[in-house]
Fold this sequence. Notes:
This protein is of the alpha/beta class. The chain has helices at 6-17, 25-35, 40-44, 54-68, 84-92, 98-101, 105-112, 131-156, 159-172, 179-185, 221-233, 249-257, 267-276; strands at residues 23-24, 72-76, 79-82, 186-188, 193-199, 207-213, 238-243, 261-265.
Amino acid sequence: MPIPAFQTIMRPWLxxxxxxxxxxxxxxxAELADSFSLSDAERGEMLPSGFQAKFTNRVxxxxxxxxxxxxxxxxxxxxxxxxxxxxxxxxxxxxxTLSILAKFPEYQDFKSGGKTSPVPxxxxxxxxxxxxxxxxxxxxxxxxxxxxxxxxxxxxxxPDFFERLVVDLLLAMGYGGSRRDAGAAVGRxxxxxxxxxxxxxxxxxxxxxVQAKRWDGPVGRxxxxxxxxxxxxxxxxxxxxxTTSSFTSEAREYARSIGKRIVLVDGPxxxxxxxxxxxxxxxxxxxxxxxxxxxxxxxx
Length: 300
């Protein structure tokens, strides 16, 4: 089954706490995962950022909303107990949703940040995701848009622009030593691409054969075989084959099966590398995601 939305988690959360005992967040996460019959893969599924498991994030945010509405109370670091209000919510038989919690003054204060202005209009579209998920989804959407635009611009640009772009990217990733070294090592192939051997590090302890080209269609196994055969002639131990299009499954399987170390970089991965190394893009805004440090408030 899909990982339940954090609103769906709130009633089972209260059911679990209805015994009146203290419950640690970690125990609740484990018990709720069992009650929802989540697989190991679903329990381990991470948020796009990779910093936290998605289910863990949703259980934690369910606890935050229940706590702010006065349905559970924090009795220690990461430990909670149900309150009389929580029992009333369970006894009502109604689904426990953000709309229900919004009836309580404490929750209204939480949503308004303590300001006297009215609570913003409720957005049902955001009910099934936590704030962290909403932020990461927005960032992912922007990234996909930028990635698509990057590839469109690369394909429409003159061949020499693509050649410079690849050299800029390799330098940004720490290959090639100086720009002069990289420019001399990786030259034009005469067909809208580049071809050459570049230093893997500034000391030149290892060599990487690089070939990059704006192919129109998918790159198949024969092209990868030719590239692999060129490594020996170039006296390189590793190879990177870059395309603005894609590689066939046969091409990728061949690259994995041979002894030589060959990395295939397709269009989407090329765009990701450009974004991650800030080549061809600018950082328009930076946001910091913060949370309370429970350890700071623990007695020494």
